[in-house]
From TrEMBL:
Domain called Aminotransferase class V: residue spans: 59-408
Keywords assigned: Amino-acid biosynthesis, Aminotransferase, Pyridoxal phosphate, Serine biosynthesis, Transferase
Annotated protein name in UniProt: Phosphoserine aminotransferase
Organism: Brachypodium distachyon
Cofactor: pyridoxal 5'-phosphate
Transmembrane segments: none
Family annotation (Gene3D superfamilies): Aspartate Aminotransferase, domain 1, Type I PLP-dependent aspartate aminotransferase-like (Major domain)
Origin organism lineage: Eukaryota, Viridiplantae, Streptophyta, Embryophyta, Tracheophyta
Pathway: Amino-acid biosynthesis; L-serine biosynthesis; L-serine from 3-phospho-D-glycerate: step 2/3
GO annotation terms (biological process): L-serine biosynthetic process
Amino acid sequence: MSAAATAGPNSILLHRPTSAGPAVASSIRLPARASKVSCAAVAAPSSPHALTGAGERGVYNFAAGPATLPLSVLQKAQAELVDYRGSGMSIMEMSHRGKEFDAAIKKAEADLRALLAVPDTHEVLFLQGGATTQFAAVPLNLCAGASDPVDFVVSGSWSDKAFKEAKKYSAASVAWSGKDGKYTALPQFDAIKQNPEARFLHICSNETIHGVEFKDYPEPKNKSGILVADMSSNFCSKPVDVSRFGIIYAGAQKNVGPSGVTIAIVRKDLVGNAQPITPVMLDYKTHADNASLYNTPPCFAIYICGLVFEDLLAQGGLAEVEKKNQHKAGILYDTIDASGGYFICPVEKSVRSLMNVPFTLAKGADFEKQFIAEAAKEGMLQLKGHRSVGGVRASIYNAMPLSGVEKLVTFMKDFQARNP
Ligand code: PMP
């Protein structure tokens, strides 16, 4: 009996398509909300309809991470979920050393290299433990021991956490801190008090909680020229000259995939010098020597990242993606700035993040609560600011459609008009 002949109400379990897609997709029963989905709508330019629409999935998700993913990616993953490209099993159920996963991880790496123009001088590693684990892995790999000096720009909560963790494995110093200014600015580069003996200079390219983003990067003054960046929340949101960095690392769950995989791009000459106490899983050499397959990798997360990379390439690459991000963020910041002080973004204009837009309401915390609750009723979710700072935060990563930002700013103007 052929597989197709068994098609019936349970056909999703039995049908074995030869290619990803329509056959399977059409046999899956979508939940009520997902039935509103239209692939074309994902990439569709904004329309007046979008101003009143509730998003392709019934809501717009402004979460800081895990965050919204492109609908087309989710649909492709859904179509391939139970039977990955004719294998008869999902990508979660097969050996990470088999040909299917091998092809998926190689393609993901190749596409990421193409997107960011990663030079041959750098390894691309798919790791686990979140960006938080890299806070330890970086000094463990780059410093000979706990007395090696290293420099940190502390521009928000994440770089502060990275600094504190690095102190365990290096002699870490704060070369500049934005704490006194409540993390609303970044330094002029010559104000960073770099130690020329420092092994590396660490920055967080985008502070997810405070919404400050480096638009250019400081030159490390250390002898070996190592600049390290935590790019978790703006990874692949714009082109970056990777050659300027010794290490770039990023948890995937904001711009490029689900939580569970952390990507590190590491200059090859920095691999292989880890401190003797370094756990095997934190030593970049372990992963570089084994093409990120030393142990069982987060297969599904890597696969989804691969789909996101394909999608970003299909959009025309990161220069195009950056233009869209600038446009979306511009609309939101303009609305805040034109509100006559009703909405306030405390971040200095020149370093405002394209990804995370924090703001407060001059009328106070009760109105912020009301704003967030009413927005949620309108299908705009997860707008609450981080618990450490309060207020409102709109995370508008690559996958947030322009229509979501348009709907938000329309709502903001309406809220202001109703609550003067
Ligand atoms: N760095 C930044 C900039 C972040 O936004 C986050 C997570 N929100 C982290 C590090 C920590 O990442 P993870 O949860 O993957 O450890």
